[in-house]
Design a protein that fits this description.
With about 220 residues, this protein is mainly β. It is about 10% helix and about 40% strand.
Amino acid sequence: MSFRPGQAIVRRYRKRDVVTWVQAAMVVADNDDGLLLWEPCGAPLVLYRDSAGRSLKDAPIDELVGASYIHTSFQHYSALMLHPAGASYSVWWMFAGERFAGWYVNLEAPFERHAIGIDTTDHALDLEIDPQRHVSWKDEAEFVARTGHPWYWDAAEAATIRATAQRIAALAAAGAYPFDGTHCDFRPDPAWTMPELPDGWNQAPASPPSKAMNLSGGAL
């Protein structure tokens, strides 16, 4: 299954059969380089929150009480998101208006396709890389706290996730692809409209994505 340029799809995080994060995005390209998506500032975003307003950053999923979906929008930035086939991360180019503001690297399970978009599982650990390629690590405390939890990753998987992050950080520091200026001048097709969430945005397919396995894949 492939997606066509200009098609609106969803990008979702899941924990087993629970959809925990939903973004609406436009397909820029779907080819051997990977799946490239555009999420404009203001695009629909759905967050999973419990009755106390806590997210998965605040507590593991089995501790969220009375969780439901909060509809909001992607704010402050637009993002060009590259998902290399089989990779255990995605690379985001962040734009403030037309100004390139840096990269964001999300460590996650290799994405799986379905009829309305893609699903992956977030691995908590992230990298922020400014336009001068200075690397900052994010959410390390959450990553460590979730290690060993049955819904998340074990110690061996955690080591693999961290090694992937270190490898990508080294690429950024060296100015290697995709941190070599590629896509930093990206502009969306002016004919594109704001993507919308399709029917079934919160329905999980029968086979959930792997929680943390197959972590070492990727083209970078």
